[in-house]
Design brief:
Number of strands: 13
Shape: globular
Low-confidence stretches: none
Mean pLDDT: 93
Structural class: alpha/beta
Strand order of the largest sheet: 10-9-8-11-12-13
Number of helices: 12
Order of helices and strands: HEEEHEHEHEHEEHEHEHEHEEHHH
Helix content: 40-55%
CATH class of the largest domain: Alpha Beta
Distance between the termini: 17 Å
CATH superfamily of the largest domain: Glycogen Phosphorylase B
CATH architecture of the largest domain: 3-Layer(aba) Sandwich
Length: 371
Amino acid sequence: MLNNEFPPLGGGTGTVNYELFKQFSKYPDLKIDLITSGNKQDKNTEQFSENIQIHKVLINSNNIHHASNYELIKYTLKASIKALKLYKKNKYDFSFAWSTVPAGFVSFLLKVIFGLAYYVRVGGPDIPGFEERYQKIYRIISPLIQLIWKKSNFLIVKCKTEFEMIKAINQKLNIQIIYNGVDTQKFYFVEKPLNEPLKIICPARLIKRKGQDVLIKAIAHLKAKGIIFNIDFIGEGDEKENYIQLAEELGVTEQICFCAYIERTKIQEFYQKADIFVLPSYNEGMSNALLEAMACGLPVVVTDVGGTKELVDETNGFIFAKGNVEELVSILENIYNNKNILSKKAFNSSKKAHNLSWSLIGEKYLVLFKQ
């Protein structure tokens, strides 16, 4: 397996990798070597379980939440060398890349040299056009991305939107949808009285694609109407200072907590203390945070992007158009004036999430591996 991010480095892809490893560790006939990124203080090799070993190539990331282009190139080179050495020693049955780039390139290299079959789990930013900040890079690497897809034995995507985006590029690719999952033992519904004012949680990297500025503007509009919500922004990112400044300019600083990064072991406490989950993203695949919020019994307010429509409907939340501040204001005002609607939606959110436990998702991957 190849993945440039694995906790504590990285974001959603690393989290999914970690959660599935907990499932894969239950199957002793499945032997896995993962090549991921590491920093100076890390051990070169760690044993995740008896059947899973983690190999770290030295990257020295400056930001544990987001890799720079230089760090991605560095991982590609070092992971390629490590993969070639490990293959000669272990003669794997196949390789599995947790993204098209950089991980998929290493799998592609193994196929070119040794004829080794490989799968690619496509991340949203892998798809040309998905991530606005990568538009210039897409022009350069799109041919490579498409070549890696074409030579793979299988592509895995998280939602129908990703499936359709890739099929629009190449109809002939072999693609399967496997949703992200959620740890229903860790993230669970806790009944509690509503906060006063109502508390919104928005756990996501503070980057433009996540659209936190839309939520800040909506809160300011509501405050002008005498309607107060408080927000916990959980995460770090390039836009943090801009969002802090925007909150100051709009006079809503007292309502917003920029809570920084919260460790995975503690994040469920923040979900369980909130009343509503809001994710105003301009693009998503299948949000881990959305699934966690649903499992904790939160009504959810999300944009009409990616896999959100496959998880959210009128029974457990609200959907609004990306970037539409007025529509978000209308939804939150309706919630404020009709707080009784929250309890039923909370129950339905939790019920839906339990159908996507990691144990069920892990079984889908195992079926694919055995093929």
